[in-house]
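Researcher: We're teaching a course module on how sequence relates to structure. For the next exercise, students receive a sequence and then see the predicted structure as C-alpha cells, so they can try to spot secondary structure elements on their own. Here is the exercise chain.
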Amino acid sequence: MKQYEASASIAAPTAAVWNVLLDGPGYATWDSGVERIDGTVESGSKITVHSQVAPGRAFPVKVFIDRAAGVMTWTGGMPLGLFRGVRTFTLTATPGGDTEFSMREVFSGPLLGVIGRSMPDLGPSFTRFAEGLRAAAEACAAAG
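Model: And here is the predicted structure for the students to work with:
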C-alpha cells in the first residue's frame, strides 16, 4: 500500500467547499494540479482526470458522494484489482462554521510494486490541491 495525504483549514462553510469540488470545469481555474476534468462530478458518474503531474495521461475514475457524511471518493485503476487508487475527500464543518478539509489517496494491488516505482511523489501536488481549494472556496464564500 502507498498513500498520500493533505489537509487545510478553510474559512468557508462546507457548502462553498462542495461548490468548488463539484465544479469539474473549475478545477483548471484554481491551483488544483488538474489540467481538466471530462464529465460531470456527481455521485455515480465516471469522470476522466487530466493531471499536471502526469502530462498526456488521463485517469478515469468513478465518483461517489455522500454530502451528509462530508465524503467524496474517486476510485480508479486496472481490471481485477491489479492496481487501484482510491482518493477520499473529507469535509468536516467546525463549530464556527468553517470547514476542515482532508484528502487521502491509497494505492494498492499486486502491480503496485511495479507501477509505484514509476509514480512521481504526489505529496507536493496534494499540498497544492488543498491550498488551492482553500483559496477558491474562501473566494466563493466571500462572493456570496
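Model: If you want an answer key for the exercise: Strands lie at 2-10, 34-38, 46-51, 58-66, 71-77, 84-93, 99-108. The first helix runs from residue 14 to 21.
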